[in-house]
Amino acid sequence: MVRNYVRKTAGPAYSKEDVQKAKEMIESGRSSLHAATKLFHIPKSSMSQWITGSRGVKSATMGRSTIIPAAEEKRLADCLKKMNKWGFGLSKKEMLSLVGKYVTRNNISTPFKDELPGDDFFNRFMKMHNLSLKKQQAVEVSRKKGIDPFIIADYFQVLKDVTSDVPPAQIYNIDETSFCLDPSRIKVVGERGCSSHRITNGPGKENITVLLGSNAAGDKLPPLIIFTGGNLWDAWIPAEEAAFPGTTYAATKNGWMEATVFENYFVNSFLKSIPNERPVVLILDGHTSHISLTLMLKAREAGVIILKLPPHSSHKLQPMDLAVFGPLKLKWDEEIIKWQRTHYGCKLSKLVFAIIILKIWINSNPQNRLSGFRKAGIYPYNPNVIEKEEYDIQQYKRFIERNNQPTTDSVAPSLPSAPSVSALSHEILASTSTSTPSTSSVTYSFEELLLEEIKQRPLPKTTRKKVCSGAEVLTSDEVVQRLQILRTNNQKTAKKRNIVGEGIDSEADDPNPISPINQRSEKKTSKFPPNRPSKKRKFVCESSDDDSSCSDLDEAKKIESILQKEASDDDSETFSDLEDEQICPLEVNDFVIIVLDGKKDRKVGYVAQVQEMKEAITVSYLRRSQKTINAFIFPKVPDISTVPRSDIVYNLKKPVQTGTKRQSSLIKFNYNFDYLSYKLL
Q1: pLDDT tens digits, residue range 360-408?
Q2: What pLDDT does residue 529 have?
Q3: Of 390, 421, 446, which one is at a domain's C-terminal end?
Q4: 66 found inside a domain
Q5: Residues annotated as region Disordered (predicted)?
């Protein structure tokens, strides 16, 4: 049979209903065979065969009946739809194999080659039942668990309480996404059977993180572009006329969002871009970089309410994910392809990336942002944006039962669970009992054959850290108090591990116990040879609390001084000599040590020279020499920055002058820097 059959003759002028009416008139005696066939334009011989039963019932179509009865085909189509809804969709090969197994098990005679249907059967079946081939989108099991009716209902209740009296211009959502330097969504026209390629510079696997946001009225926020690198260079930043007003930039080691970067963006960009009216509601996901005590305190002070989305639900409740990022990335692919055609073999620089992405954000469609808030049910408020088919059947049933109860104590919300095979089996078997019975004698149904291929094994239980199971207002008193307790416990644990755990202990039997520092200072014998640095101690110093930072820093300095006196016999000065000089006034050209936050709450020190003193101090950083001990050099490109007075911990004395010409660029200090608790770069 040809693939696309075109009928060359006209079909019969009568239908199945006409045959049924004519048959009833003849059998009731109201009309003769000749009169009935003439009235309905039915051949007399055919009508006679239908009356005597020598010919089967006329098919609803022009041709012969299908191999598999229409009722069974409909049941197969329903099963395929249910399997796809639950994430167990079948491919074309699997679907044809299922049909082949069905006709083999039930001993149905077919013209199929090797008992497997071909493309003609597949195309006709897909067209008749309104089906199509789709590319499955990978959804993590945690995201499937996150769509729980109890959690979603609680989130929308919190959302209603927070945004009930807030206009759309004061409801914001921000989220970060990554833009790949190799476009993958655009298809090109080419010859059939031939591959298509594009010349690029490098593998194209590099991604750059961009933070974008808007409010429910469609107004854009200045973006934050996060590059991969140890420092941020002005050569990466486009000119003001090519940039979105207020755009901020950052650089991290891996190019990801970090807590300090997000805090700086919140203070220096977000708060300056929102209206003066309060309150302002900020909706974001619960990524660890978005949750810190310092950020919550600054948000409360600024009158910003931060609402955290339920875990693993951003693909359904985050406006930026729902309607904004998709069109932006499609436009990004188009622009990067145009750029590659005019820059053959060139690598996309960070400056060009920023120019292109800011141009796309400036020209983005505001309707997409409005659609995102509408699809997320934020504005207009709609708690029913998630269809009931998205929920687990058992969970949704318990949710309905709880809402129908006079009190909610009888039915408690359960922990979210992934769509189970048992629930899918229950739904498929339920559809079997309600389906129209087949006219053929079928031993094995499609439902039974499908359930043979689906099995679920119990997974081993693992203990995990308990997190919030739903949405919460991060700026509430309860959350802030919890974060404060957590930070206090972390500081106590770090001090106990880093100080007491290193052998600094006191006599338990002493009636007059003294502090570990005083007891250690009474010992004058050195445990290490001269000029051999002892094991470095690590101290936790939170920069968000000035009082605690100073106390921890003073304690660290005392221990550093004690350890240095024990382990060193040379004439180098100790850092305890600088304690009195720390609070003395600074002057231009003084050399200082600046301590900044590093990775994993570790402190990093830098030697710098004071250049200018105003409200903030302008310094020029030095780099530690890799060849000469306790020597520093100025980099070829001056590294100039402004720092607050609180970041300067030591005021170094003038450097030692060197006599040789080769060492004239080296700046040496008469200090032993090996005893610092932090790494000096």
Answers
A1: 999 999 999 999 999 999 999 999 998 887 887 777 888 888 887 654 4
A2: 43
A3: 390
A4: no
A5: 497-552
Torsions phi, psi for 671 (to 5 deg): -135, 150
Structure-token match 């009474």, residue found: 522
3-state secondary structure labels for all residues of 569-626: CCCCECHHHHCCCCCCCCCCCCEEEEEEECHHHCEEEEEEEEEEECCCEEEEECEECC
Give the Å distances, CA to CA, from 52 to 22, 26, 32.
14, 12, 15
Model pLDDT, residue 644: 87
**Portion of the chain with pLDDT greater than 70, in percent:** 72
Tell which residue, 551, 575, 565, 577, has the closest CA to residue 630: 575
* 3-class secondary structure per residue, 376-392: CCCCCCCCCCCCHHHCC
Residue 174 lies in a domain: yes
Provide the token pair at 104.
């083999």
Q: What is the pLDDT of residues 583-627, one digit of tens each?
A: 567 888 888 888 888 777 778 888 999 998 887 889 999 988 877
Q: Which of 375, 390, 405 is the last residue of a domain?
A: 390
The residues pairing with 212 across neighbouring beta strands, listed in sequence order, are 175
The tally of domains found in the chain comes to 2
CATH of the domain at 316: 3.30.420.10
What is the rounded distance in angstroms from the CA atom of residue 188 to the CA atom of residue 197? 10
pLDDT at residue 585, as a whole number: 74
Judged by DSSP in three states, 547 sits in: helix
Whole-number mean pLDDT of the chain?
77
For residue 222, is the peptide bond before it cis, meaning its omega torsion is within 30 degrees of 0? no
Name the 3-class secondary structure at 673: helix
Element of type H or E holding 665: none
Residue 462: band (very low, low, confident or very high) from pLDDT cuts 50, 70, 90: low
Element (H or E) spanning 640, and its range? strand 640-643
The C-alpha atoms of residue 243 and residue 247 are separated, in whole angstroms, by: 7
Residue range of the domain that includes 628: 554-680
Has residue 401 been placed in a domain? Answer: no
Other CB atoms within 10 Å distance of the CB of residue 238: 21
Kindly give the interhelix angle for 92-105 and 70-85, rounded to the nearest 10 degrees: 140
Task: Give how far the C-alpha of residue 386 lies from the chain's centroid of Cα atoms, to the nearest Å.
Answer: 19
Please give the sequence-ordered ranges of beta strands (E in DSSP) within 300-410, or none if there are none. Answer: 304-308
- Euclidean distance between CA atoms 174 and 288, whole angstroms: 15
